[in-house]
Amino acid sequence: MKIEFLGTAGAMTTPRPLCTCDVCKEAREKGVPFSRLGPSIFIHGPNLLIDTPEEITVQINRSSLNQINGILYSHWHPDHVMGIRVIESITADWIHHPEHPEAINVYLPEQVKKDFATYIGTDKHLTHLERQGYARVVQLQDDDRISVDEVMIQPIRLAEEYVYAYLLDNGSKKGLIAMDELNNWQPSEQLKEVDIAILPTGVFEYHPISGERKIQADHPVLKEEATFEETIKIIDQLKAKKVILTHIEEADQLGYLELKKIATYYNNKGYNIGFAYDTYKVSV
C-alpha cells in the first residue's frame, strides 16, 4: 500500500483566507509544503479516498492518482465532507453521456450514516447522487470488515462516538488511519504495533520544545479537541512502527520548518514521528 496525503490542514486551511500572520504569508509565498488544504487521504492499491473537503477537486488534480474505487468517510464535520459533489465531477461524463455511469462506492460506518441524515444536508446530497447513478452507498456496521482489492478494511469507532478510524490489512502490513477527534480514546490491543499509524496532530497547548503556552488555559478549544500532548500519550500506547501526524491547524502557528524541528526533537527521544504535508506519499 502507498498512502498519499491530499490535504493535511484541519478545520482551517493554511493560509487562512485574509490572514496576514507570518505562517499564512509564508504559505502564500511558497505554496506546498508550507500551505495546507483540507483533510483528505488516498490509499493506493485499493484506490480508496478518505474524506472530501471543499478543496478536494484541487487536491485530486495535483495528485498522482488516476482512479478512485471508493470513498470512506470518517465523520460528518464540514471540513471532511463539504466536497462531496466531487463524486458527480468524477462520474458524470457529459460528453459521452453513458446510460449507466460507473457509480462510486461510498462507504458509511453506522453512526456516520445516521449523522449524514441529521447534519448539513449531506444525506440528501448523497441521495441525489445515488438517483443520478453516480454513487452507491454501502453501509458498514461497527464490526464489519470489507475487502477492496485484497485489502481488508475495518471501521473503528473512537471515544467520540460519531467519528471512526480505519484499520487496513493487506495480509503483510497493517495501517491505522484516524482522520480527527482522538479525545479520550484508548486504543485496543488489536490496534497496537501496526506498521503505520496516521493520526490527527491535536492542538498545541504548549510548544513541545520551548514549553511556551500557545493556547490560554481557559480557551474552549481545550474542552473540545485533543491536545498534542494527548496525542503523544496515544502514540506511546499504540507502539506503531511509524507515525505520521496530520490535520494540522493554522491556529497552532507552526510552519512546515518548525514542525520538522519538533519531529526531530521527538525522534531524538526514541520516537519515529513525521508531520505530513500536502502531496506527501508514504509506502507501507
UniProtKB/TrEMBL annotation:
Residues 47-248 form the Metallo-beta-lactamase domain. Pfam families: Lactamase_B_2. Gene3D superfamilies: Ribonuclease Z/Hydroxyacylglutathione hydrolase-like (3.60.15.10). InterPro entries: Metallo-B-lactamas, RibonucZ/Hydroxyglut_hydro. This is Phosphoribosyl 1,2-cyclic phosphate phosphodiesterase. It comes from Gracilibacillus kekensis. The lineage of its organism: Bacteria, Bacillati, Bacillota, Bacilli, Bacillales.
